[in-house]
Amino acid sequence: MGHLFYSWDEINLGNLNDLQPRMFSPQHLFDAFGQVTGLGLAQSQMLLVVTMYGIAAISVYYLWPLIFATSTWQKSGFFAALAYVYNPFLIGDGLNSAVGAAPHYALVPLSLIFCVKGLRDKDFKWALALSLLSPFILSDFPTLHTFYFVAFTLVSFSALLALSSHNIRFTVYFLSMFFALSLLINLWWLLPLFQNLSSYSGTLSSVPAHLGVNGYSTVIEVLRFLGKWSFYSAYQGVAYVPYSAVYFDNPIISILSFVPITLAFGALLLRPRSRRVYAVGIIAIVSLFLAKGTNSPGGFLYSSMLDWFPPFKAFRESWYFVQLATIPASLLIGVTTACLFKIGGLVATRYGAIRHSRFERIAKSTVVLVFMILIVIPGWPLLTGDVAALPFNSGSHGVSVPSYYNDLISWDNREQQVRGDFKILELPMRGAYADYNWGYQGGNLLGRSLTNLVSGAGTEYSSSSGSQWIVGLAYKSFYDNSSSFATILSSIGTQYVILETDFNTTFYNLPSITSHIDILQRIPGLEPLQSFGAIMVYQNILPASSVYVPATLTFLGATIDNPQGVVWKDDNFSSGWSAERWGNESPQIQIAQTGLSMTLQSSGQYTASSAVRTANTNGTYPKYLLIRFRTDAHTSMAIELIGRNGSYYPVPLNSPTPGHSASLEWYTLAYQLANNYTITGVRVWITNYHDTIFTGTLELWLNYVLFANDIGSDSDVMQFLSNSSLTTPTAFILRQDSSSVVSSLTATPYFKRATILSVTRESPTSISLRMNITGPTVLFFGEEFSVRWNAFVSDELVSSHFTADGFANAWILAGTGIVSVQLLFTSQTYVLYGAIVSLITLATVLLVLVRRKPGVRNIVNLSKEYDLENSKNATS
Using CA atoms in the order 40, 42, 43, 49, what is the torsion angle rounded to 10 degrees? Predict the structure, then answer.
């Protein structure tokens, strides 16, 4: 947890640390408690679950009488609490919802009870107490689910109380004080966030909506408090949620799963004159409407919100809104049980022989037991423990992590103290999930255990596109068995490669572990070092450090729009092109100002035709075909290559539209060609393949067609880095990263004119170096480029900052002699400023609360607050 204080995260070549608030995550806190006390992860997770569920139950228990004021509330509060902690929402995503969602499932009702108590008593001290919860409420940033849940719940219930008590002004002041104090208490991480807001908002805007996952959140399913896609899905025939089949195949469970919502909405029938009951009911209905997402009725409203309001993408999976309905539904269940018990009491009174008899006591106990069973059965996996069953390890409810992982972590800590700053690449490559032969399936096991880890595992561990590209290039070079692998490792400061031989490679259809070992043994520049159980460690014998002075610096200027090594090109289309007739249609071709224009008539069914031209590559085998084109909205384009040994359709490297080539704007499309294929011609197809019902004219425009050998692709970069004459450590500059600084640097031959004497990483945001400089030279820092990284030579700011290796920071240093160089991430200064304000605010709030505790009256001392409306309804 120590690194969470810093605004820069070292993992995976570094990135802006958007996980700082998780320093106060209940899950992190309990895990840390288990580590410090020696309880271990399993026991600390057990303690977390018991604590969170206990807080949730107690909060709802005492919340019920605050919403529905009555002097006899204990039984209703009990059933409301029971309904809340056994709600089917908690089993809707297995352990992710039952354990992962436990903190905010507890924090929402706890925050609400503080708010409601403060509003009822008109006591601002409760707003102060509520603000102390804000670090925990915001601790799941950047998803902010808990904050959204708390905000929605507080505003909706505050509106309910304000309208019923006519205290609108006080309510506004109360909530404003809470939000203002919360802002100040969390300023230590909010201040650097505001400084880098454009980066965060840009990332959020680029998050895809994935609306398809909302298809399961239908009205019927959300009324059962279900609807999460994983509840209905499987991988290789194994259900993600092992017990989910019971809710589809067992008719009794299927019917009983509607009991919670039936009991909740039953309150609207049993208390028809209670405005407060109807207000709580409206909150539940609105929440369930949001939970169904893009499904009918009114699904277009949800889609519009996702398009218009980027932060709403935190709920691109609409099922999470089900949680907003759990509190009002649980409170209404308490109302329903109260009414039913009251009706039972009236019946007993009517028949005096039953009143105060043994039969009455048995009947009451039986009714209580029946209600408990009906409320608990829909969430039965919580009671039996089946919610913790592992999907791919039948019968198991947990795993023991082998001890050699601790040995690896200890070794890495020692190596960092001895060798200084370096990175470790993780093999095999993986996505967001990992599967091990000893039973573990889940997130990357080492993702937060090794701060210097380089991995392709999941978005939580990924940096920006530049870092993802270079990490992807490293993995590609490995699986392509390229000699550039060690050189790429050197350029990203990777000193070691670890191979987890206990990893299940079939999970991602990767080569076997034996194949991984064979590749590691063949690739030059690597040698085995040692093993920790099933983990093998290889050392990169090339120079590797996160901070270095490059021995060579190369400008790689080729891109798709600026290819190099052009073999053949046609950009005037004045001759050689001819239209081809296929069936009854042939395209019309003519020379336009921008190149060649092709048109074809479409009559509401599939049609296609083409134009062809001979091409002469002078006996060479070019690597790429590039075509610049645009189409109308109904037209698709395809390329067919003609050669001496037949024709084939190459696969595009950068298709502008998924599955087909169509672009309303000019677009340069690149194709990688087959090896040793003799090209004699190129055919361009125009078709309505993806809009066959269109009737009208299809249009395609070509600007140029060419063959080239270098477009700056991954293969081209690897080929450059495979050059055995290349002196390491090396650095390169891609054309898209060129600037005035780079132009002046590459105008003359590069020479290494400095030596690093020592490197000390003082913190994730501060690195100190001693260097011997003999002339202008480049200093390379192998973590994600950010304008917030500054270099100082003898306390003088270095202005020549640019991007190297497609992702990293580099500076041109001037001066001579032995100098001190400091690399600082300036956003950390804002963390310190914000921390000062946060501590002062926190101390002030605590001082006020200590001097006068909030709410002198007991939180449930409601005997004088008997609800007259409830009394009238009871009489009715």
Answer: 140
**Does the structure show a pLDDT above 70 at 462?**
no
**CA–CA gap between residue 435 and residue 425 (Å, rounded):** 18
Q: Side by side, which strands form the sheet with 754-763?
A: 754-763, 766-773, 817-825, 789-793, 796-797
Q: Measure Cα distances from 609 to 587, 588, 628 in Å.
A: 6, 10, 19
Of 486, 454, 490, 493, the residue nearest 471 (C-alpha): 454
Which amino acid is residue 255, in one-letter code?
Answer: I
* % of the chain beyond a pLDDT of 70: 91
Query: Sheet harboring 494-500: ordered strands across?
Result: 453-454, 423-427, 494-500, 535-540, 526-532
Cα–Cα distance for residue pair 508/504, rounded to 1 Å = 8
Q: Is 747 exposed, middle or buried (0-12, 13-18, 19+ CB in 10 A)?
A: exposed
Q: What average pLDDT does the segment 760-774 reach?
A: 93
- Give the chain's length: 876
Average pLDDT value for residue range 385-413: 86
Query: Mean pLDDT throughout 842-848?
Result: 94
Euclidean distance between CA atoms 520 and 527, whole angstroms: 8
Strands (E), 423-508: 423-427, 434-435, 441-442, 453-454, 494-500
Alpha-carbon gap, residue 172 to 166, rounded angstroms: 12
Helix or strand (DSSP H, E) at 154: helix 145-165
Residue 47's Cβ-count burial label (10 Å; 0-12, 13-18, 19+) is middle
DSSP 35-91: HHHT--HHHHHHHHHHHHHHHHHHHHHHHHHHHS--S--HHHHHHHHHHHHT-GGGG
Q: What is the DSSP string of 169-198?
A: HHHHHHHHHHHHHHHHHTHHHHHHHHHTHH
Amino acid at 799: S
CB 183 within 8 A of CB 190: yes
Q: How many helices (H) and strands (E) does the chain have?
A: 28, 33
Asked if 69 and 862 count as a contact pair (C-beta separation under 8 A), the reply is yes
443 secondary structure, DSSP code:
S
Taking alpha carbons only, the member of 316, 327, 257, 314 closest to residue 286 is 327
Q: Are 547 and 769 in contact (CB under 8 A)?
A: yes
Q: What is the mean pLDDT of residues 333-346?
A: 86
Query: CA distances (Å), 569 to each of 573, 625, 704, 708, in order?
Result: 10, 10, 7, 9
The radius of gyration of the chain's CA atoms, rounded to the nearest angstrom, is: 33
Q: What torsion do the CA atoms of 602, 603, 604, 609 make, to the nearest 10 degrees?
A: -40
pLDDT mean over 256-278: 91
3-class secondary structure, 206 = coil
Query: pTM (2 decimals)?
Result: 0.81
**Helical H segments across 435-581, by residue range:** 465-479, 485-491, 513-522
> Across the strands, what pairs with 779?
811
pLDDT at 457 over 90: no
Dihedral of the alpha carbons of 755, 758, 764, 765, in degrees to the nearest 10:
-60
Residue 188 neighbours by CB distance under 10 Å: 25
Amino acid at 162: A
Peptide linkage before 297 cis (omega within 30 of 0): yes
Tell me the pLDDT tens digit for each residue of 576-598. Answer: 899 998 877 788 998 887 889 99
Tell me which residue has tokens 């259809």. 509
Q: What is the DSSP letter of 98?
A: I
Cα gap 452→265, rounded to integer Å: 53
What is the C-alpha to C-alpha distance for residues 135 and 183, in angstroms, rounded to an integer? Answer: 10
For 417, 590, 591, 654, 655, the CA distances from 663, given in Å and listed in that order, are: 54, 20, 20, 12, 9
Task: Give the separation between CA 91 and CA 244, rounded to whole angstroms.
Answer: 9
